[in-house]
Hints:
heterotetramer
Amino acid sequence: MTSSLNLWLIPVLPLAGAAINGFLGKKSSRTAVTTVGLVFSGIAFAWALSVALRFSSVDLPYQEFVAHWIRSGAFSADFALYLDQLSLVMLLVVTGVGFLIHIYSVGYMWDDPGYYRFFAYLNLFMFFMLTLILANNYLVMFIGWEGVGLASYLLIGFWFTKDSAASAGKKAFIVNRIGDFGFLIALFLIIQHFGSLNFTQVIAQVQPISPETGSAGLLTAIGILLMMGACGKSAQIPLYVWLPDAMEGPTPVSALIHAATMVTAGVYMVARSHVIFERAPMALMVVAVIGTLTAFFAATIGIAQTDIKKVLAYSTVSQLGYMFMACGVGAFSAGIFHLMTHAFFKGLLFLAAGSVIHAVGGEQDMRKMGGLRSYVPWTFLTMGIATLAIAGIPPFAGFWSKDEILWQAYSSDHGSWVFWLIGIITAFITSFYMFRLLFMTFFGDYHGAQVDPHGQAHAAHGHDDHGHGEPHESPIVMLVPLMILAFLSVVGGLVGIGNRFEHFLAPVFGSGAVSEVAGETASRVTEYVFMGISVAVALLGLMLAHVLYVSKPYLPQRIADSLNGFYTAVLHKYYVDEFYAKLFVKPLIQGSTTILWQGVDRKIIDDTVNNAADGARHVSDEVRHMQSGNLRSYAGWIAAGSALVIAYMIWMGVR
Amino acid sequence: MVSVHLILFLAFGAVCVAGAVNLLAQTHPINSALSLIAVMAALAGEYLLLGAEFVAAVQVIVYAGAIMVLFVFTIMLLNAGVEERTKGSRVAVLFGIPGMLLGSILVGWVVLRHSGTEAVVAGALPGDPKVIGQLLFHEFLLPFEITSVLILIAIMGAVVLASKPATSPAGKVE
Amino acid sequence: MALPIWLFILASVIKSAIVLFVLLTAVAYTVWLERKVVGHMQNRWGPTRVGPFGLLQPAADGIKFLFKEDLTPPHVYKPLFIAAPLIAVVFALTSISVIPFGNDVIIRGYRIPFQITDVNTGLLLILGVTSIGVYGVALAGWSSNNKYSLLGGLRASAQMVSYEISLGLSLVGVLILSGSFSLRDIVNAQGGYFWGFIPRWNIFPQFIGFFCYLMAAYAETNRIPFDLPEAETELVAGYHTEYSAMKFAMFFMAEYANMITVACVATLLFFGGWHSPFGEQAWLHAHGAPGLLVALLPVFWFAAKIFVFLFLYIWVRGTLPRFRYDQLMAFGWKFLLPLALVNLIATAIAIAW
Amino acid sequence: MVPLSYYLVLSGFLFACGVAGFLIKRNIITIFMSIELMLNGVNLSFVAFAAHWHVLAGQVFVFFVMVVAAAEAAVGLAIIIAVYRTRETLNVDQVNLLKL
């Protein structure tokens, strides 16, 4: 290994920032807090860049030992870091986008009383996320995994005085627990069978196993359980329900955690353990199915949402579905590619949405917006770019990655035309609702004049100085990140041309079916055909949206009425939340109330304790008469007792 | 042949036993105190037989000369009379006495049965003051210092306890 | 060479008899001396009638004591009332048994020490015996069932216990210097001279110790200025108010015997025992003086020193008034004890260097 | 020569007498004396063992016991005086207020 890269600096710096802000921030001024928060995350980003520059000179995978942690018998898990192409990509994405969103937050959260808290949490999240990425074994990864869960809980419930926010945080946390349960079981299985959680060792042990051998069942189990964890973290069916509610958090949080970085942790984890999945076709199938269903399902819900952030949330879910679809068909590099581009444009979308909300003074309902493009041109511009990107219009970033995924879904040996079909329909829906969002927000004429400037969101955001009356452009500090991200969303996809990205990641995922297929001219033709289809679909969605929401605004209502049952179902997200409430939550509450509380706690535990106490009191009531207050009686007791002791000792043979 | 040592041991032992029994038998504390002094003096004799002459001297000086003087003094000060046989404690009679008897019988049985009959040579271990001093101030320095602290505390406690409270009837000034 | 056992016993008996006789005579004549000296100090003649200078006065006193009626008051606690004077006198006389009066004498090659018995913890034995002696006084006071006696007994016991501490501590300095409990060794350690002319007596290095010892000794023997137990002006006659005839005489003898014992101890410990202040013994040895002279000269010096001490006792009695009891206790605990401790520590440090 | 067991039996007897005194005596001062008697019995066995095993530490322990006894006597007698001042009695059967 060449000269040390000091990777440990990258996670530790944000941690230091979090500590400083968390402990001292309350007293110090906003500028100080800003400086600390930005400087530490910025240095982390800079360091990540320098690492990337020196990357070629490092022999991979580069591992860095930090400290001993657990050493029990043969098993050992250390605090150690691991760097290869995959984690480098994630590293750059997280630090870069994270840093941009930090900058953005300065403008967005400036008036919030919990300013220092926000930055402390944000830096804390950065620390955990980087730990997750750079971990060299599943256990450290799990620390980061749980840590980002914690950070997301804290940030979703950032305005904890608001019930919905607090409960949303709780919901996210609990739902994630379910996924983590599976993840943990998977880890236990890995320890059980491979005796280590170290990536390199696990891979080394899994490599020789071929899908046909007996232990494939084991690998399948591990894979499915890992996928369960991924479902929790990355909001896949059936555990996606927390993500839409998570929009209660501040918009930068939604952008950073619930679009760009954390929710992709699941994808990263699946990709990281690709060796296992590749040897468990069953698990791969599960991943693919879940991903595909989620993509379609969430997209359909996205159509009917009127809250701008909810729309983005569901689109996030469906995009994550795409990524999982890619992983499921064995095209991990495609998934990661989409992860990166998605980080760019979805982060951008959220930030732009935040800017819009900021512009209209905290209003999130798209029906109360419209015609904003004249008020907030920059926001409009960037958001348009992002929309084009996500809709998959070339040459924007989303096009390349999404098209790659679709192509793989069809062509790779794990894939099939079903995935492709659903994927293409989803692409259509995606572009439709994204443009719907765009048109509803920026076109037509402004409906927001009568917005009560002191709405609840208003109170939460605390934009007292502005927000009422005319919508207005956001400050420059918020616009700069938008522009940078916009630029990235434009060019970000170009790295994928000619499968350069795949080749970059090839050392990690092994040169699978991906490159050869891409190499053949015959299939290249078909690939171009598919490319055309997806573009056409995207444009179709654009036009439909334009027809419905620009040229003939009265149509949607009519359509809604015509298929009203389905529409309401979609509007209420297929009643999934209610369903879960009936199925899991209520029985849980009932059971714990009747059995655990009334039964176990009251009847068994409390009564045991009370009876013991009563018994003690009664016994001592009798015994206390021994304390007669007479010296000689005490002497008598002592003498008798010592006689007994002596007799016992002699009997025991102590002589 | 009955050695001088045995004779002396029996003589002093007889004094000890007599004194101890007398201590129990006498009803007046001062007689008990005097018999206890006799016991102590006889014990000093036993120590001499065992060669611990320094211990014997200190036994006489400290126990007979100081501690028992304190007792006698207290008896005289409080003018303690003949004790009346009150029936205060059934436990002492029902459990204490049998317990005491049982314990002592057991111990005596064990001692007589299991301790070998090898003799203790008279003066086998000359308790030379010099050596004892060496022990006290080197190996047992810490206990020694601790006991000195104990003594100090005891003195202060005694002063505080016996000092006449302002309101109580005047006792003998001490 | 050592004596055969029978000869040893014989010698011991003879020595005991001599010592006892001498001691009792000394006691008697100390009384006479005291009366004479105090008398002269008070411009009186003291006893003059019986014999020349009243020299037969002690005999007359003895006879009187013997033939007086020995009455026992009805209210006393008899056994102790009788036992008390015996205890007092017996323990007073016992302590003389370990005191060496002079050098060993060689009779037909047999070493015979001028000492009844030479135990190597003689000093401890003296201390123990004197501490036991307290009971005589205390029990006398208590058993005679009389408030003056009781007060006397209480005072005696408290005072003796208190001053015994200072007494012991004041002696420890000497013990450190000589490194032995055996009186003979202590005395031998004091032979020779500082710088050739000052006798190597402990009084010089241990002056403070000697002072403490003197004070404590006065208190131990219940002598003026510490004779609180028998303060005539306060308690009629203290602990021996109820006593008469021979029992009273026993207390009397006990007191003076104690005085002599204390004087002996002071001489042995601080004044070089039988060593003479001048170097004449060696000179006599050199010039072959008669053995008897050589043997008795130390005894003479010893007696002379004791006489000086007794005279000091009497002198003090004739001079000083009596302390108050609280003054006595304060003096003992707050002045004498710390002083003795300081002296002890100083000596220890000096030796350690 | 005297067997060790004789000394031990003697000390045990003294100790037992002390216990018995504690049990049957009413006068608190006498009870204290009984305690002293027990301590003396223990001391005897200490010295006997010291002579038997040729370990001088046994005699050293006797000194510690004496110190403790002295302290105990001082404090105890002071307590006795205090008790007598308040309760005007030395009979332990009359001093039994310390109870539930």
